[in-house]
Design brief:
Elements (H helix, E strand, L loop, with lengths): L1 E10 L6 E3 L1 H11 L4 E7 L4 E7 L2 H14 L26 H7 L5 E7 L2 E2 L5 E7 L5 E10 L1
Antiparallel strand pairs: 1-8, 2-7, 3-5, 3-8, 4-7, 5-6
């Protein structure tokens, strides 16, 4: 059994910045020389998620619209009340309760099969990192396990 890992660093532009990682993950799997196993793609953040879906502009717009419909950025969140919140505060803290609540609706990681040295994705499937907060530096960890 062999394992290898890599960190992808990226800078998101805004809330709902869809970052397609498919080709970078595909190349990493190819370079690993692992023929059969699994690849795990994991967000290192609580307000950024990983998912597999189609890269079709109207669908991505629908995802954004429905996330906002379910969890509004304008709603009140205790997490955003810095007069009462005392835990996990850092310098320059922003009001992002909406992003944390949206994140619980989506996965922080996906595991995909590797067969004959190739990621097993359907015809339209793509791997995305989705920003749910604001422009910032992000990391995605990739780990491959197999033979």
């Amino acid at each position: 059994m062999k394992t290898t890992h890599k960190t992808i660093s990226l800078r998101t532009k805004k809330c709902y910045d869809f970052n397609n990682l498919t080709e970078e993950v595909r190349k990493f799997v190819e370079d690993s020389k692992i023929k059969n196993g699994f690849v795990n793609i994991q967000s290192m953040h609580t307000t950024g998620v990983i998912f597999v879906n189609e890269e079709e502009p109207l669908l991505l717009s629908d995802i954004e619209k429905n996330m906002d419909r379910l969890i509004s950025q304008e709603a009140e969140y205790n997490h955003d009340n810095f007069k009462i919140r005392t835990v996990n505060l850092c310098s320059g803290e922003c009001a992002n309760g909406h992003a944390h609540c949206k994140a619980i609706l989506m996965p922080t990681s996906v595991v995909l099969n590797i067969v004959d040295g190739k990621i097993q994705l359907g015809k339209w499937q793509q791997i995305f990192f989705l920003e749910l907060d604001r422009s910032r530096d992000r990391q995605v960890q990739i780990q491959i396990i197999g033979e």
